[in-house]
Amino acid sequence: MFELRPWLALIFRRPGRLVLGGLLILATLLSGIGLLALSGWFITETALVGILLAAGVQASVNLYVPGGGIRFFAVSRTVARYMERVYNHDTVLRLLTDIRVTLFRELAAANRAGREHLSGPQWLSRLTSDVDALDTLYLRLIAPTALALVVILLLALMAWLLFDCAVAAGVLMVTLLALVIATLAVYLVTRRASSRQSDRQEALRTAVVEHIEGFGELRAAGRTGRHGAWLLRQAHGMNAEQARVESRVGWHQAVSQLLVNLAAILALWAGYELFRADVISGPVLVLLPIAILGLTEVMTVLPDAFGKLGSTIASARRLNRDTASDHPPIEIPAPPEGLALQASDLAVQYPGYAPVVTHLDMALAPGERVGITGRSGSGKSSVADTLAGLLQPARGTLARLPCAYLTQQTVLFDDSLRANLRMGCSTATDGDLWRVLEMVELAERFAREPDQLDSWLGNTGSRLSGGEARRVALARVLLSPAPLLILDEPFTGVDADTRARISKRLERWLDGKTLVALAHGPDALPATDRVIPLG
Ligand SMILES: Nc1ncnc2c1ncn2[C@@H]1O[C@H](COP(=O)(O)OP(=O)(O)OP(=O)(O)O)[C@@H](O)[C@H]1O
C-alpha cells in the first residue's frame, strides 16, 4: 500500500473534482435504490388493494404520488449516470495526464544510470500498462468503496427510521461484513498472486519482444521452436496464476452477494414481525429489503477491482523504483576562463563495478582537438559518457562548455531525414542540411531519392546501411551550434577512403570548435592536435 502514496497524492490533487464525481455516483446509486424501493412499495400497495377489492372490501390507492416518484427516480438515475460518466471519465483522463507528465518529467531528468537498466519493452510497460493500472485507482477502487460505505450507512439509517434499532444494527453488520469480504478480504487473498502475475506478464512481454527482434538469430541457431515452446510455458504459467486470482475473486464476490441477499431476507423477516404487530404497513415492509438489494449495484464492481489491487501495487512499485529520484540529472559547471574543457583526477566507474578509468586529467583550450584512443573495453565510451554528462564521475572534477555528443551507438528516429537532422539544430535551413549532407558524402544519395530531405529513415534508421546511418548521426551532431563536440567512434562502418575524405572536410567545418574524438586507433579519428591513449 505504501507504494501507492506518491500516486495517491497525485490523484488527490484535485479534491473538488473527486468529491463532485463521487456525489454524482452517489446520486446515480440512490436514484437506482429509490427506484427499486419505491417500485416495490408501489407494486405491493397495488397488489394489496387489489386483493382487498377482490374480497369486496372498500380500498383505494394513490397512483399519482408514487407514480411521480418512480418517474422522478427513473429520470434522475439516467441523468445522474450520464453526467457521472462524462465527468468522471474527464477526471480520469486528467489524472492520466498528471501521471504521464510526472513520469515523463522524471524519466527525462534521469541520467543514463537511471534509465539503462530497463529494456525497451519494460519502458513500454511502464508508460502504458503500469500507468493505466494507476489511473483506475479512483474510479474503480476508491470511489465505489467510499460510496458503498455511504449507502450502507444510509440503509442502516432507513432501517432505523422505518423499522427499529435492532434491524438497523443487523443490516449494518451483515452489509459491512459483505463490504469487507468484497474489498479487504479479496485484496488479502489475491495480493501475492496478483503481484506475481503482473511481474510475470511484464517478463513475458519482454521475452516476446526479444523473440520477435531476435527471430533471425534464433532461426539461424535453429532455436525458434524451443524458444517458442518456452514462451508458451511462460504464458500458461501466467494464465494459471490469473485463473487462481479470478477464482478467489469469484468466490469472494459470491459470498459478499450472498450476505447482501441475507441482509435483505433478514430485513424482510424482521419487517414481517413488525407488520404482524401492526407497527408497519405491508408496502413499507418490502421497501427496505428491496433497497438493500440495490446495494449490489455498487458491490459487484468491488471484488474485481480489489483482486487487481495487488498488481496495481506491483505497477506502482515498478514505477517508483524506475523513476529518477535516485538518479538526479548531472550538472556540469562552465570551465575557467581560457578553457573549453577541464577534467581533473577523473574516475569513471559504474555503480557496483570496479573502476573503468582512474586519474584522468585533461585540459582543452577553445578550438583544440584531442583524440582519445584505447583497445576495446579500455573505457573510451564510458569516458565520453562522463564528459558528456550522462555518467556521474566517481571522483574528480569536470567542467566544460556546452557540448554536442555523438554516442557510440547510432540512434536515429523513425522520422524523415530532415526531422532527424534538425534535432541537431532546430533552426537549420534546407540549405544547411544539404551542406552537412555534402560534408558526410550523403547529399548525392538523398538527392536521388524521390522525397529527398523528406525521405523516411525507418525504425532506428533501418532503411539505411550501417555506414550511412552513422554518417546521418554524425551530420546531426555537426549541425549543432555547441562550441564543444564529443565524437565517439565517428566513422564506425565507414570505409577508409570515405573516412579520409570526410576527415579532411571536417577540418574546415570544425573551424573554431573544440573537439574530443574517441576511437580504438588514430586511423579511425579525424585530424587532431594530440592523442591521449587510455589504459
Ligand atoms: N552499464 C555498464 N555497467 C557496468 N559495466 C559497464 C557498463 N558499460 C560498460 N561497462 C564496462 O566498462 C568497460 C569499458 O566499456 P566501454 O564501452 O567504455 O569501453 P570502450 O573502450 O568504449 O570499448 P569498445 O571500443 O569495445 O566500444 C567494459 O569492461 C564494460 O564491460
UniProtKB/TrEMBL annotation:
UniProt topology in membrane: Multi-pass membrane protein
Pfam families, alphabetized: ABC_membrane, ABC_tran
Domain ABC transporter: 341-535
Protein name listed in UniProt: ATP-binding cassette subfamily C protein CydC
InterPro entries: AAA+_ATPase, ABC1_TM_dom, ABC1_TM_sf, ABC_CydC/D, ABC_transporter-like_ATP-bd, ABC_transporter-like_CS, P-loop_NTPase, Type_1_exporter
Native organism taxonomy: Bacteria, Pseudomonadati, Pseudomonadota, Gammaproteobacteria, Pseudomonadales
Record domain ABC transmembrane type-1: where: 19-311
Gene3D superfamilies reported for this sequence: ABC transporter type 1, transmembrane domain, P-loop containing nucleotide triphosphate hydrolases
Record carries keyword Nucleotide-binding: yes
SUPFAM superfamilies membership: ABC transporter transmembrane region, P-loop containing nucleoside triphosphate hydrolases
PANTHER family assigned to the protein according to its UniProt record, in alphabetical order: ATP-BINDING CASSETTE SUB-FAMILY B, TRANSPORT ATP-BINDING PROTEIN CYDC
Gene Ontology BP terms: cell redox homeostasis; glutathione transmembrane transport
Membrane spanning stretches: 20-43, 49-74, 141-163, 169-190, 284-302
GO molecular function, one term: ATP binding
Origin species: Marinobacter oulmenensis
